[in-house]
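sry for the spam today, last one i promise. struct tokens for design, 254 residues
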């Protein structure tokens, strides 16, 4: 049986596409803005809980696809600070319940331990309920010695807030005798100082904006927009995004 997958109105030969991108330079770090869960729910007559559950399952699949390809770093924009400020109390309770459930699942997910995946969660976590923060700490501690792959969740996150937090941390740190601030120094105060910048950022749902996602880090990232809602994204969409990335000439301002 041939390995084909529907992408839009076309069939994609996955083996051929995978072989094609394997001959090119793979991104080390992919950032994902998994947009469209609520619109997917409305289109298909699902509850928000059902749609978010499908979105989580898709995230698990997507992470495994990336590891299979050898993508070392994967960052998910899981819950923005703006979401925390603007979503209804009912929806936030649902999201917190799902977050806790998913983090508990990661603790015992044999794929995480088999593949030596370090899980990191960054953002203004103080905005989350304590029971959610507690299980996040458990997952981070349980995977802290792993370094083959990195799975990074941005929760209670805002790119602007991260930069403000870095500035405040730098101002508080008076013991280092800072006389001049450059990019290298400033980066030490960011949430992810030792994580390479995303090479490729993928956003679903057809929206063409970055929505406060990793503002400091994506200065030279390649952007790829998919019209599908997040629960609809497929393996071929990931392969096509990487193919698009490989076809770009990255100049870094040169």
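last one done:
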């Amino acid at each position: 049986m041939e390995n084909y997958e529907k992408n839009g109105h076309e069939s994609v030969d996955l083996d051929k596409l995978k072989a094609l991108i394997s001959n090119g330079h793979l991104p080390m770090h992919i950032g994902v803005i998994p947009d469209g869960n609520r619109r997917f729910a409305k289109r298909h007559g699902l509850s928000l809980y059902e749609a978010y559950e499908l979105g989580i399952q898709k995230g698990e699949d997507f992470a495994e696809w990336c590891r299979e390809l050898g993508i070392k770093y994967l960052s998910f924009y899981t819950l923005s600070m703006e979401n925390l400020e603007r979503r209804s109390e009912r929806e936030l309770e649902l999201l917190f319940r799902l977050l806790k459930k998913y983090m508990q699942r990661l603790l015992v997910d044999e794929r995480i331990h088999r593949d030596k995946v370090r899980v990191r969660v960054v953002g203004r976590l103080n905005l989350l309920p304590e029971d959610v923060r507690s299980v996040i700490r458990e997952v981070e501690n349980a995977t802290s010695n792993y370094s083959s792959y990195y799975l990074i969740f941005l929760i209670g996150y805002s790119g602007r807030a991260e930069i403000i937090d870095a500035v405040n941390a730098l101002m508080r740190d008076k013991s280092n005798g800072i006389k001049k601030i450059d990019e290298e120094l400033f980066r030490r105060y960011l949430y992810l100082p030792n994580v390479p910048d995303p090479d490729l950022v993928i956003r679903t749902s057809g929206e063409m904006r970055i929505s406060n996602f990793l503002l400091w880090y994506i200065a030279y990232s390649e952007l790829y927009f998919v019209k599908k809602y997040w629960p609809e994204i497929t393996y071929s969409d990931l392969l096509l995004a990487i193919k698009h990335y490989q076809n770009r000439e990255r100049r870094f301002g040169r």
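The mean pLDDT is 93. ok im logging off now
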